[in-house]
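Reopening this one. Same input as before:
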Amino acid sequence: VATLFLINGVILVLYLNSPPNEPRERDYIYVGSYVAFALWIGCGFYYLGKLCRPFRAGSAFSVLVSISVPMWMLFQNFDDHDRSGRTFQVDNARNVLNSCAPNSVLFTGGDNDTFPLWYLQEVEGVRTDVRVMVLSYMNTDWYINQLRKTYYDSGAFKLTLDESDYRQYGANDVLYVDESIKTAIDLRQYIALLAAGHPGLTRHSSNGEIYHILPSRALSLNVGIPEGVSNAPLTDEGADQMVFTVPGSYLGKNALAILDLVASNEWKRPVHFNFSSMSTLGLDLGPYLVQEGPVYRLTPERHPGKEIAVDTKLSWENLVEKADYSNLQDPNVLFNYEDYQARIIVPLRQSFNSLARTCLEQGDREMAEKVLKAAMENLYPAHLPAAYTNLEAAEILLAAGKPDMADFFSRTAFDYYYKHVLEEIGAGKHPDALNAYILRSSAELLAATGKPEFERELTKNGL
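Same output, byte for byte:
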């Protein structure tokens, strides 16, 4: 048992050399050591029972311990793991799928935001015309090549690079940026040169392996020109062009496949991204994205401004008219922080704020108020924690001349974070920086609505 415990515990830690930060807890890797420890617990309990046999109350003690230990574990853990009545993961996935255009492709960021979509398509048959592709899988050849096949009601996609070009451990696994060209290069021509294995893009590693490079941080795409027709020079930068920039030191194979799909399908199929996929792609698509509620559509037009453009009509339809948030209203349902608050609810609140801000910038104060009223009713019930999105909403409402509604968002944030900061201080901890910032900002917003007493309360407590 000791050998089992060590091999599946400490020795496995040393062997795997796991990084300190992971997308989620990886304790399931060490389940073998837990089994060994449980065996020890069983041996220890048996020994205690054996010691108690000579005593009259020994049997009663054994029964009491055998019942109380699992009951204590149940008492401590049930509320943290209770999933009864929780449907919002699937409800939200349905909202996302129904926000996609017909016959489109939707790129997602990881397992948690992808599996509910696949469940709906595979089990309930919802929106099987939408091809859901998760970026973390798109670094494998077999997954990219699934795009070439029909799947339910989603037809095959065209790709210029063939299966050998996406081969695992091939020359296109990682395209390192070698910025020998300072201007944008033509995307279609670059893809054609990759397919041909052009020597100008070919390098050799120290052990002789071949890999390809990206000679510029920018790739331009002539909009509306079919593949194979463009004879533009490599650095041509015309007016009707999209320019994709690579901010990092390399272009991943998943991003290459997306660029290939966009260039090869000539806008015949809509391309969508969800919230998480945009931050993990390693490619700046922001100037060409339009928010349409919980999804973002890639368009051939460049949109002005630093923020992602918002289609106010579609966003209102997809976020409010066609969406279902009823499960969030049940105070008896557990929505944990990582899977629900951080990954679903807060991004949805951000989407509402973006829509309201755009309406305000367009001069439609009434619509901005309407959007945030819908957010208040659907996404801010009393049992759900506040977030920094409360501050954004309050600022928008103050600018729209609605101090009463702004007071709701500010006061909710103040009450929630004031309680948490006081608990941290009471436990002898230094308050979390983000919590303290949101607390002070909410007090400032409340002062702007004519309630300076909240700032005085913080000053009194040295905050």
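So the earlier flakiness isn't reproducible anymore. For the record, Residues 225-238 have pLDDT under 50 and may be disordered.
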